[in-house]
Design a protein that fits this description.
By secondary structure, the chain is mainly alpha-helical. 57% of the residues lie in helices and 12% in strands. The chain is elongated and about 65 Å long.
Length: 144
């Protein structure tokens, strides 16, 4: 997102935002960035669109309360688990995921992350080189 903002204050703007907020902000910035060609814009929007459902699955995996399933006495590890996931203003849902599905999700996120990084390096190289200002000047800190 920092490179899409093309501002020396980009790191401060992006700091602390959640992954979904960053994806939404990047999607909006890609739509208006005048340095991008239409093919670059379409490629980035496709990748950002693909990452949102993966992030939702990741959030269920990371933030759910998990209980092993189908555990037999002679099985060293459970083959799957069920998560209870609650969100504000919604009912708790129960999701089953196998360990193979969890590994596949991690692999998909890794591959897409690399593709997004390569796109940034190819499409926004000059913006990546912009100096970033992350701390206020010393005179701004006086009297605080």
């Amino acid at each position: 997102m920092v490179a899409l903002l093309d501002s020396k204050y980009g790191e401060v703007v992006a700091a602390g935002l959640g992954a979904n907020e960053l994806v939404d902000m990047c999607t909006a910035l890609v739509k208006i960035n005048r340095e991008l060609t239409e093919p670059q814009r379409a490629e980035c929007r496709n990748m950002l669109g693909a990452v949102k459902p993966l992030l939702a699955r990741r959030n269920r995996l990371v933030h759910g309360v998990w209980a092993p399933e189908h555990v037999s006495i002679d099985e060293p590890l459970p083959s799957a688990a069920t998560a209870s996931i609650s969100r504000r203003r919604s009912a708790t849902i129960h999701v089953e995921i196998s360990f193979e599905e969890a590994e596949e999700l991690a692999n998909e996120l890794s591959i897409l992350g690399v593709e997004i990084f390569k796109w940034i390096c190819h499409s926004l190289i000059w913006q990546l080189r912009r100096e970033q200002v992350t701390e206020p000047p010393s005179e701004a800190a006086e009297g605080v």
